[in-house]
């Protein structure tokens, strides 16, 4: 499965890729509390879009969101998924695909594939105009909550070794660096850090 994860800040280049098979490193001692937010229907009131308050919800993606998701892929990735690839990741008995939506506008999304008690995060992406507004935090909270609801033991992802802001975000949510993949990324070539969120540890915080 080809997948990639991105978290992009306003100060970053426009093509940060986080491939998961595609996303974070062990030994850093990073741990986090189990998210309290519900994975479905959670509503957050945040300052978005130039300081205007906007309500948005974290909910399951559907086929009606594919056009916006496709546009978001092109805005965030140098090798974006096609609409068919996105459609193959929509929610079913093996896939979790969440979006942050304000009305009909998709602000960002995150997804994972799960087999038995293991989850593999594919993508985390936020539209450029809504970055650094807490949307990625809300999506990661919801992913971890959904993983707990599915009784998964852990979630794993890869991230570019140079992407300090994304690594900090994942550590904030309890992901630990557990390994490294040499020359994992292209455009430009770079190593990936393998990061994992362990549910049992999160539950003890």
Description of the molecule:
The chain is an alpha+beta fold and 205 residues long. It has helices at 66-76, 83-88, 135-149, 164-172, 199-203; strands at residues 4-5, 18-19, 42-48, 52-60, 95-102, 105-115, 118-126, 154-160, 175-185, 190-198. The strands form two sheets. An eight-stranded mixed sheet has the order 3-4-5-6-7-8-10-9, sandwiched between helices. A two-stranded antiparallel sheet has the order 1-2. A hairpin with a 2-residue loop joins strand 5 (95-102) and strand 6 (105-115). It starts with a strand and ends with a helix.
Number of extended strands = 10
Helix content: 10-25%
DSSP summary: helix tally: 5
Q: How confident is the prediction overall: mean pLDDT? A: 78
Report the biggest beta sheet as strand number plus sense, adding barrel if it closes: 8 strands, mixed
Low-confidence stretches: 1-42
Could you give the order of strands across the largest sheet?
A: 3-4-5-6-7-8-10-9
Integer-rounded radius of gyration = 15 Å
Q: What pattern of helices and strands is seen along the backbone?
A: EEEEHHEEEHEHEEH
By oligomeric state, this entry counts as single chain
